[in-house]
Automatic annotation (TrEMBL):
Pfam families: Citrate_synt (PF00285). InterPro entries: Citrate_synth-like_lrg_a-sub, Citrate_synth-like_sm_a-sub, Citrate_synthase, Citrate_synthase_AS, Citrate_synthase_bac-typ, Citrate_synthase_sf, Citrate_synthase_typ-I. It catalyses: oxaloacetate + acetyl-CoA + H2O = citrate + CoA + H(+). Keywords: Acyltransferase, Membrane, Transferase, Transmembrane, Transmembrane helix, Tricarboxylic acid cycle. It comes from the Bacteria. Pathway: Carbohydrate metabolism; tricarboxylic acid cycle; isocitrate from oxaloacetate: step 1/2. The chain crosses the membrane at residues 326-349. SUPFAM superfamilies: Citrate synthase. This is Citrate synthase. Belongs to the citrate synthase family. It comes from Peiella sedimenti. One of its GO terms (molecular function) is citrate synthase activity.
Length: 391
């Protein structure tokens, strides 16, 4: 009963008003607070983009300095946090560690947090942006069995993160500026993407008044799935499995026979080239020229796969184009990250989007607890039958 609109997957339901991110999927346009993603990826940096998303404007020089200082002040984890990492099996998937440990931040900051106070909400946002690289790097080091490297606040956000991931005690570590720039760009490209599944999860969790650390942990859980953030891991595994361009036609036939999906392709909103994929493809080439093989077989497979798919009736009819995850795996892999870390990096970067959306929701006077309805399909009313009389 009830006259509800049936909209599985929310393909045509706007659940909120938002001033953060605009997407025109038909034209392949993505703007953050009005600024095109390609301009931000080219000219800006991740800290500026965080300020833009969280505050609504690009920072002045003085605001930038203050904002960056504020973030670096919060990069450390409480010493007791070690226990959470040590509780995991040594081969735990880093995403499992992320869901658990980010949720555990609630236990460190929740009790003193009044989410109705804008200042305290803001400090939570800063804490999350600041601590995510530390937690992600720590999950990585734990996963590969190396000692943890503490944050260095004199480095920028991407440099510090790369150092925490790749520095080894007793060995010198110089951050490669090309890789740091590529890392920063990957963070920018993943910073926000309006009401995708994980962001909607964060908003839904937050609509009940839950604390922001728990809400972000919910977002990470949702991001993990292969249809969403987990696609970057799956996309690289797929490219490796295809191996060489000669195997592409067979693979494409399998996709068309619905045996599997072409990972890193297709998008709910983009029915055109994902503008993030264009930047990502360029970044992949730059990183491979620096540290890998510019003729990397996986890049060749990816480019050939893209060429064939974009000329194939199946993909043309359905308007399936490469998305952000198609080329990111090649880049991250060349940088030295195992596939298990790919979605973690996505979560790290998306945290600013999630928390900015949470903050926006908390400031919105029309905000209500999220409560979808359903079309009931079960039995009508019936009387209880004792077990001895059930046939
Ligand atoms: N490979 C093959 N066929 C596809 C693909 C694909 N990657 N994506 C969609 N289709 C087909 C689908 O089978 C359907 O065909 P038909 O109408 O004949 O049944 C049609 O295209 C529409 O697909 P849909 O599943 O109704 O579309 P959706 O909007 O529900 O799904 C998606 C969007 C991203 C889940 C989907 O395109 C997909 O599974 N892609 C692969 C996974 C992926 O790369 N995800 C990352 C998305 S971007 C980053 C992020 O969000 O985290």
């Amino acid at each position: 009963t009830g006259a509800f609109t049936y909209d599985p997957g929310f393909t045509s339901t706007a659940a909120c008003e938002s001033g953060l991110t605009f997407i025109d999927g038909d034209e392949g346009i993505l703007l953050h607070r009005g600024y095109p993603i390609d301009q931000l990826a080219e000219k800006s940096n991740f800290i500026e983009v965080c300020h833009l998303l969280l505050h609504g404007e690009l920072p002045t020089a003085a605001q930038y300095e203050k904002f960056e200082r504020n973030i670096t002040m919060h990069t450390m984890l409480h010493a007791q946090f070690d226990r959470f990492f040590e509780g995991f099996r040594r081969d735990a998937h880093p995403m499992a560690i992320m869901v658990g440990t980010v949720g555990a931040l609630s236990a460190f900051y929740h009790d003193s947090l009044d989410i109705n106070d804008p200042t305290q909400r803001y400090i939570s946002a800063i804490r999350l942006i600041a601590k995510m690289p530390t937690i992600a790097a720590r999950a990585f080091k734990y996963h590969i069995g190396q000692p943890f490297v503490s944050p260095r606040n004199d480095l920028n956000y991407a440099e510090n993160f790369l150092r925490m991931c790749f520095a080894v005690p007793a060995e010198d570590y110089e951050v490669n500026p090309v890789l740091a720039r590529a890392m920063d760009r990957i963070f920018i490209l993943h910073a926000d993407h309006e009401q995708n599944a994980s962001t909607s999860t964060v908003r839904l969790a937050g609509s009940s008044g839950a604390n922001p650390f728990a809400c972000i942990a919910a977002g990470i859980a949702c991001l993990w799935g292969p249809s969403h953030g987990g696609a970057n891991e799956e996309a690289l595994n797929m490219l490796k499995e295809i191996g060489t361009p000669e195997n592409i036609p067979d693979f494409i036939n399998g996709v068309k026979n619905r045996e599997r999906r072409l990972m890193g392709f297709g998008h709910r909103v983009y029915k055109n080239y994902d503008p993030r994929a264009k930047v990502m493809q360029q970044s992949a080439k730059e990183v491979l020229a620096e540290v890998g093989d510019p003729n990397d077989p996986l890049l060749q497979v990816a480019q050939e796969l893209e060429r064939i798919a974009l000329h194939d009736e199946y993909f043309i009819e359905r308007k399936l184009y490469p998305n952000v995850d198609f080329y990111s795996g090649i880049t991250l892999s060349a940088m030295g990250f195992p596939t298990t870390m790919f979605t973690v990096l996505f979560a790290l970067a998306r945290t600013v989007g999630w928390i900015s959306q949470w903050q926006e929701m908390m400031e919105d006077p029309s905000q209500k607890i999220g409560r979808p309805r359903q079309l009931y399909t079960g039995p009508t009313r019936r009387d209880y039958v004792p077990i001895s009389q059930r046939g």
